[in-house]
From TrEMBL, chain A:
It comes from Microlunatus panaciterrae. InterPro entries: BP-dependent_transpt_permease, MetI-like, MetI-like_sf. The chain crosses the membrane at residues 73-96, 108-128, 183-204, 211-233, 239-260. Gene3D superfamilies: MetI-like. It holds the Pfam family BPD_transp_1. Signal peptide: none annotated. Belongs to the binding-protein-dependent transport system permease family. It is a multi-pass membrane protein. It is found in: Cell membrane. This is Peptide/nickel transport system permease protein. Residues 69-261 form the ABC transmembrane type-1 domain. Keywords: Cell membrane, Membrane, Transmembrane, Transmembrane helix, Transport. Residues 295-326 are annotated as: Disordered.
From TrEMBL, chain B:
It is a multi-pass membrane protein. This is Peptide/nickel transport system permease protein. Keywords: Membrane, Transmembrane, Transmembrane helix, Transport. Gene3D superfamilies: MetI-like (1.10.3720.10). InterPro entries: MetI-like (IPR000515), MetI-like_sf (IPR035906). It is found in: Cell membrane; Membrane. The chain crosses the membrane at residues 12-32, 111-134, 155-175, 195-216, 257-278, 298-324. Belongs to the binding-protein-dependent transport system permease family.
Amino acid sequence: MKAVNFTPRFWVALGLVLFTLLLGLVGPLVVHTDPNAVVGGLYDAPSAQQWLGTDNEGQSVLANLVYGTRTSLIVGLLAGTIATTIGLVIGLVAGFQGGWLDDALMGMTNVALAIPSIVVVILLSIALPSRGSFTLALVIGVTGWPWTARAVRAQATSVRTREHIDVARLSGARWGSILAWDVLPYLLSYVVMAFVLQVAGAILTEAALSMLGLGPSGSVSLGVMLYWALAWGSIRTGAWWAFMPPTLMLTLIAFSLLLLQSSLDEVFNPRLRRGRAARRKKVVGVTEPAVGAPVPIPIESGEDSDVEVGRGVETSSGTHTRGGNG
Amino acid sequence: MNFTRYLGRKALWYIGALFVALMLNFFLPRLIPGNPVDSLVSQLSRGGGSSGEQMKAIYENYMREFGLDKPLWQQFFIYMGQLFQGNLGTSFGQYPASVNGLVANALPWSIAIQLPAILIGWVVGNTIGAIAAFKGGWFDRGAFVSSLFLSSMPYYCLAILLLFGFGVILGVLPVGGAYSFGLSPELSMAFFGDAISYFWLPFWSLVLIFIGGQAVGMRSMAIYELGSDYVNYGRGLGLSDNRIVRYIFRNAMLPQITGLALSIGGLVGGALITELVFSYPGIGTLLFNAISQNDYPVIQAVTLIITLAVLAANFAVEIAYGLIDPRIRAASIGDR
C-alpha cells in the first residue's frame, strides 16, 4: 500500500507547473535578446527572425514574455512565502494557545479578512514612490495572510486535543518545540495547499495591479505586458501577438497551480477520491450500494469541511460553534 | 432576545472593522513624504505657461481646498466629518468635479454588468456542481476540470480573449464602450437596446468565471455530504435517491449562500480590470484614470466604497447565518 496516492491529475498539474517554472528560470538563458532592446518596427508580425513579433515599442515579445514570466513567478513565490509564513505563525499560535491570545489574533485576522486586500494593496501601491518587484511582492504578501491564518488555526485547534500533545507536555517539551515538532507536521498538508493558492493569487494580483498602472516600475512582468498591450490598443488593431502570449501564460500559470492544489486536496482528503473507490468496487464485483464512508485517515477531523470551504464559510460561525463545543 | 444580543455583538464588531478601514483609507496614501499638491502644481508648471504668481495662487488654493495645510490628525477629523455628511471631496484630476458626482456616474455601470453575472453564475454553477457530484464518472471529471479551468482563469484574460474573438475576429459585437457615439444615457428603449449590445461581452467574461468557481465549490461540498453518516443511514433505510439528493442539497447550500453574499459584496470592486479591457465607464475605469492622474480623493472614495460594500455583505452573511443555521441559534442560547 502506497503511503501517498497521486492521481493522474496531479502529474498533469505538476508537469504544467514545472513547465512554467522552467520557462521562467531557463528561458532567459536561452533567449539572449534584451527585453528592452528595439529589434524591429512597431507591432511587427511574428516571423522567422522574431518568433512572436514585436510590441508597441519594437521590442521582442518573446524576450518580454520570458523575462515577464520570471518576474511574475518571483513576485508570486515571494509573496506566497510571506503570506503563508505570516498566516502559519498566527494560525498556529492562536489555535494552539487558545484563550485571550486566540481571541485577539483571530479578531485581528477577521478585521484583515473583512477589508478587501485589493483595496489595501492599491492604497499601499499608490503610496510607494517607486515599486520594484520585491516591494510589490512584499505588499501583496503582507495583505494576503488572513485566509491561511484561519485555516491553520482551525486545524491547530483540533490537533491541540490529541493525546500525543499531552504526552509531549508531560515529557517536559517546551512550547515552541511542541508547536514545531508535534503540531506542525499534522498541518503540512494544509500549509502546502495554502501556499499553492497564495502563489497563484499573488501572481494574479500582481497582474491586476499592473493593468491598473501600479505594476513594478523598471521591469517587465506578464501584467505589465498586458498593460501596454491594452494602452496601445493592440486588441482592437488586431495585433494579437502583443496580448495573446501573456494572456495565455497567465491562464496557464493560474490553471496549473489551481489544478495542483486540487490534486493535492484529493491526496490529503480521501473522501474526495470517489473515482478510485468506485473503481475498487467494480473490481470486487459487488453490486450492493456502498455500505460505509471511506475510513478517514487519523490526522483528519470533523472540521475538514470548515477548512475545505474556508472561503465560503462565514467569518465567525466556526469560532462561535467551536466556542460552544469547548 | 439572545438573537438580538448576537446581532448587537456583530454590529459592534463591524463598526470596529469599518473604523480600521477608514484609518487605512486615510493614512496609507499619506505615507509619502510631501503631498500630492506639490506634484500637481509642478505638473501644471511643466505643461503650461502660467506665471510664478499664478502658480503660487493655485498652490495656495489647492492647499486650502484639500486641507493639506493643517496637521495630519486635524486632516483626519476633517475627513471623517466630511464623510459623515456624505461628502467625498473634490477631484484633483478633473477639478472642480465632485467625487460624489463621478462615483454616481460610474457606479450604475459596474452594478449593471456585475449583478446579473453574479446571480446567474450562482444558480447555474450550483446546479452544475451538484449534478457533477451526484453523477460522478466522466461527466463529473469533465465538468470539474472545465469548471476548475474557468474559475482559475483570470477574469481579465477571459475578457481579452472574448473581446478579440467576438469583437475583432468575428466582428459580431462592439469592441468597447457602453453605448454608441451620439447617444446619451436616458431611460428609453432606443438607448437600452443600444446599451445591451455593448453589455454582452463584459457580462459573459464575468458569468463564465462565476459559474466555474461556484461549480467547483458546490461539487466539493456535495461530495463531502455524500460520504456523511446521515446519507449512509438514509440509504440503509432504503430512501429514494431523490429524497437523499434534497437532503444533501440543503446542507451543501449553506456555504454557497455565504459565497453569494460575499460575491454581492464584491459587486463594486470585483470587475475593475474587466471594465478596463472593454472601456466600460464603471468604477474600474474611474479608478484607473484616477491612479494615472494621481487623483487621491477619487482613489480614496473608490477604495472606501469597495470596502463598505464588502463589510456590508459580511454583516448580511452574519445575520443570514443567525437565521438559517440552527447551530448558530443553539450556540447563542447556550444549548450547546
